[in-house]
Automatic annotation (TrEMBL):
One Pfam family cited in the UniProt record for this chain: Mug135_C
Similarity remark: Belongs to the UPF0612 family.
Region of interest (Disordered), ranges: 1-22
UniProt cross-references to InterPro entries, sorted A to Z: Mug135-like_C (IPR013902)
Name of the protein: Predicted protein
Mug135-like C-terminal domain mapped to chain residues: 121-198
Length: 200
């Protein structure tokens, strides 16, 4: 969907109509247009620093002509210019943007501690989990016990925890970073405590 240029402002010439989808040149045109508007608005001083100085020199003759005619950009003109630039940036950024392959696993690893705390807190309010099922608590590395490569049963209530076999309970202990227990009942107790199950 094409983005239209704003209404003709006082004190600055409109940029050319942008392409659909916008290009980097369109973004550059919007940036220079907004700089002209701010200079014409006369709210910011003309100062001599890097990029702003070169743009100030570039637009100085145009501004002097507008200033003689008392043709200043209004606050509304500046606001419309900012909105125009934001729409172009949003449209440009939305083109075929795909997260890199490493992003999803990295995000999952970063969110794992938060997810673990949230799920444990929720599970603490579920009692035995029979009426309101527990949330599956991710392992410390962010992976889910029910997904590959673990393929363990989902611990959605106290009965599921109590029904774990010895190897399954050991796998859960390892995934949660808990010390190994020889007795299976102690393993299940540690798992119940870890996931936020208050029932026995």
């Amino acid at each position: 969907m094409p983005i239209d240029v704003p209404d003709q402002p006082n004190g600055a010439q409109l940029p050319p109509q942008p392409n659909d989808p916008p290009t980097l040149t369109d973004l550059c045109n919007a940036l220079m247009y907004n700089h002209r508007l701010r200079l014409s608005h006369r709210k910011e001083p003309l100062y001599h620093s890097s990029f702003n100085f070169s743009l100030t020199c570039l637009f100085r003759s145009e501004l002097e002509l507008d200033c003689m005619n008392q043709n200043f950009a209004s606050s509304d003109d500046v606001g419309r210019g900012v909105m125009y630039q934001a729409k172009l940036i949003q449209a440009y950024a939305g083109q075929d943007v795909e997260a890199p392959a490493w992003f999803a696993p990295a995000l999952a690893a970063c969110l794992a501690p938060v997810t673990r705390v949230a799920h444990r807190a929720y599970n603490l309010s579920c009692g035995d989990g029979r009426s309101r099922h527990f949330q599956v608590l991710p392992f410390v590395d962010g992976t889910l016990p029910t997904a590959e490569p673990h393929n363990l049963p989902a611990l959605t209530n106290v009965d599921k925890v109590n029904g774990l076999t010895g190897p399954q309970a050991t796998a859960y202990l390892a995934g949660y970073g808990l010390p190994h227990q020889q007795n299976i009942d102690l393993r299940k107790r540690a798992i119940r405590s870890e996931i936020g199950c208050t029932a026995m």
